[in-house]
Give the backbone structure.
Amino acid sequence: MNNILSILENRTVLYAEDEPGIRNNVVQILELFFNKVLVAKDGKEAWFLYEEERPDVLIVDICMPLMDGLEVVTAVRKSNQLIPIVVLSAHRDEANLWRAVEQKISKYLTKPFRKEALLEALRVCALELLGGVLHVELSLDVSYAPCEKCLTCKEEKIPLSNQESRLLEYFIARRGQTLSFEEIQDHLWRYEAPSKEAIKALIKSLRKKVGKEHIKNHYGIGYALD
Amino acid sequence: MIKKLRSLHDRLSTKVKTIVLVLGLFALLSFVFVYLRYVDTRTFTEESQTFYAERIQSVYAETLKRTENFYRNRGYANLNSFGISTALEETNATLLQELSEYRWEVLKAENPFLSSMAFYDANGMLLASLGRKVPLSVSYQSTLTGFCLDETLWYRVLVPWKTYGFIMFELDPRYFLAEIVELTGLEGFILMQNNTLVTLYQSSIERLFQYSLDSHHQVRNTFSTASSLFSTHRIVQNDVSGENFFEVLFFQDITPAKQRLSHAIFESVVIIMLLGVVAFVVLHWGFDVLIRRIEELNATLEKRVEEEIKKRRANEAIAKEKEQLLVHQSKLASMGEMIGNIAHQWRQPLTQLNTILIAIELFYERGKLTPSMLQKKIQEAQGQIDFMSNTVDDFRHFFAPQKQKERFNLSDTITNALALVQSSLANNTITCTYTKEKDLFIKGYSNEVAQVLLNLISNAKDILLERNIQNPHIHIALMEKEGVVAIEVSDNGGGVHVSPIEKIFEPYVSTKHASMGTGIGLYMSKIIIEKNSHGQLHVKNTPIGACFTILLPSP
């Protein structure tokens, strides 16, 4: 459970805040947890970056010029009900709280917030990203713990690399489906994809760790997790 | 004398003075009343006396006339009768005497006062006579009918018969007195020139006559006996010769009239005395009651005045307490506002400090904290702490009581005040603009002006938020008009919904939601501006919102 935060390591976060002093520090903090931190100075920029980058987690300040944080959240929720959202605010008043509640917010943080509150919010986000599942049974004797990025095979622990765990989590999320090479490439790397060989090598190493019988290769179509 | 009166005037109480005055007036009125009564009664008495006199006169005159006519008729009847006229023509005295004897008896029986009947011839020589002894010759004249003195007084009626002679009747004058007694009931007497009396009876009238005489032996018009009062009525009569005259006198007893007069006066005086006593008693008693009432009234008045004063003092004390409470509440509100503003100003740096600490901790935990980064973070934190410290100083400067008036730049005051609420406004996405014509200096208390300004801005902010206005905006303008400096604070919050609009400056009138407003901010603002800065605070509604104007005298 402690290491659930580690699943954020290969995720992207979009952070919107208009105060530069606070923004810089929070960005530094977020960079410790996330693979990538997208920064917006106001609501409009936040909305634009969201559309462009499709981040995994959204952290917004309510009080921002041009478009306030809750308006951004409302816009995002129209197309995405799953993305974890943390709202930061100096306001404690009820009106904002109710507006936030309506939008299914993962965590509502009031400024100034404590380290523990921030970490708790991040944990909630991570848990939501996992769909609340901490152990995935792949077969009778093979299971995967996303927080630890570790396979358990007949009580033997096999650690997975960052890329391997992301790929496995992608397979788990689309269990039973046959994923094409392009789909995998698109999901894992998006625009800056490495060479086809590198991907093949990654899949191969993962299949070796999980067991080839669990990730099947359908020639000409792609791979599928049982 | 005057001094004595004055000292008396001073010594006597109002009561005595008033009683004397009232009784004096009463006495005066009474005197007039008695006098009128007296005059009235006297006039009545005099009138009745005059009437009485006239009546006597007329009865007397009537009796004379009637008697004359009566005997003239008797005379003619006698002369016309058989034998008399012939006997007279023939101057047959014996025949006349014979013929007349019987008639004389009849006439004498008819009137006992008839004293004689006589026949005279044309030359006035006596032919025959009956009764008393009459003069032997009487020269006939038509005017001879009347009184004549022949030893004693007689009344004669002469009746002629052609040219042959005449007949004469003689009456005792007492006959008239008797007639008058019969007709009026008043006994009279005849007073001769030689002061001898002819009276009807030998009565008390002679005694009365003695009473009536004055020192010159003349009869007085009024006189009194021991018990009665008399008034004299007199009729002056000449005898036929015109040489002698006599008076017919009547004494009227006017004692009852006199008594009536004095009785009337006595009655009046008694009634007046009684009334006077009653008036005195009533006045005396009434005054006591009145004085007691007045004293009571005075006492209660004093009491009431005292109570009123007490009440008023209590009210004043309450008003003062209220005022102090207001001032206290205003101070609390200002403090609350100040704390609110500080909280707003501090939230940002506090959050920043907080994030700095979190960053340091997290980096340290991961072994990623480099000395240069730590130093940078410490500097950053120091910067924020300085900012917070400055903020507190700024607020303290603004809310510290200022003892002395000073010349200050109003524009700077406004800028500083705006800086204090800037973050509070920004947090609520309220935009605020400030325009000025030029720098303006005035003399006064800069922080009081700032306090009012902050209060106005704070009110505008609250209304803008409460009414959820789109694109909330506050505009502040500094200008100078005709030697008066004006600061306008206007918003687009929809205006003041209080009628009349000046009521907004009264204490405890708040348009805000109960939890937000104390209702004294504007009241205190107005007091501060009017009392301390000798300015004015006005409000008006613009098409989009409210506009408050602070007017300050230009130095």
Q: What stands out?
A: Residues 12 and 159 of chain A are 22 Å apart (CA to CA). Chain A touches chain B through 18 residues (CB under 8 Å).
